[in-house]
Amino acid sequence: MFEDIRAVFERDPAARSIWEVLLYPGLHAIFWHRIAHFLYQHRFFFIARLISQIVRFFTGIEIHPGAKIGKGFFIDHGMGVVIGETTEIGDNVTLFQGVTLGGTGKEKGKRHPTIGNNVTIAAGAKVLGNIKIGDNVNIGAGSVVIRDVPSYSTVVGVPGRVVKHRGKKVLGITLDHGNLPDPILERLQKFRRELNEIEKVVNAWKEESLKKET
Questions:
Q1: What is the pLDDT along the chain (214 residues), one digit of tens a residue?
Q2: How far apart are CA 20 and CA 188, in angstroms?
Q3: If residue 202 lies in a helix (H) or strand (E), which one and from where to where?
């Protein structure tokens, strides 16, 4: 829990005192999850699920007691966060409100994502299925990720596309998820530049034709 508390101070500029941090719903959720997960591992399934549901009611954060979560885990705000049963989360991971780490279909066994270390998943993003998200990955707000993501990548869009941030690899924990690249916008801008070049060629050809006619 000390690692989780320290993560709040490191990643939330609004955190001013330990007493204030202890009121964070994300911290409550992870504290009780670690207890529920211990009970779940020792086959006290009902009690573990009961704790999970009570915490969900008070925090708006639903973490299945079967999920494995590493140290330094931070949920910013957290309302609407859902983490499925077979999810595995590494160290120093940050989730924002509305994130879903969910499954697809009705398959048995491992059906939720595996999240690496130093990963940031922005508000409203959905990471679905038995996929692997590598270390030092940033997932942009509203993205829907359904395929594996290699380490040191940035993902945006629906479906999620791997892009480079300003031509450089993304390192460490990046909370500036409002400035991630938009591959669709970049492609539209490139298309517009190509149209401008075509217009210049056509206009030059028209001017040349008019000169010849006169």
A1: 777 787 887 787 777 888 888 888 889 999 999 999 999 999 999 999 999 999 999 999 999 999 999 998 999 888 999 999 999 999 999 999 999 999 887 778 899 999 999 999 999 999 999 999 999 999 988 899 998 998 888 888 888 788 754 555 545 545 555 555 566 666 777 888 888 888 888 888 877 777 776 6
A2: 45
A3: helix 183-213
Closest by CA position to 171, among listed 115, 117, 99, 97: 117
- Give how far Cα 8 sits from Cα of 22, 92, 117, Å: 10, 10, 16
Q: Which two tokens stand for residue 152?
A: 């040191």
Pairwise CA distance, residues 110 & 66, whole Å: 11
Map tokens 């508000």 to a residue: 123
Element (H, E) at 155: strand 154-156
d(C-alpha 152, C-alpha 66), whole Å: 28
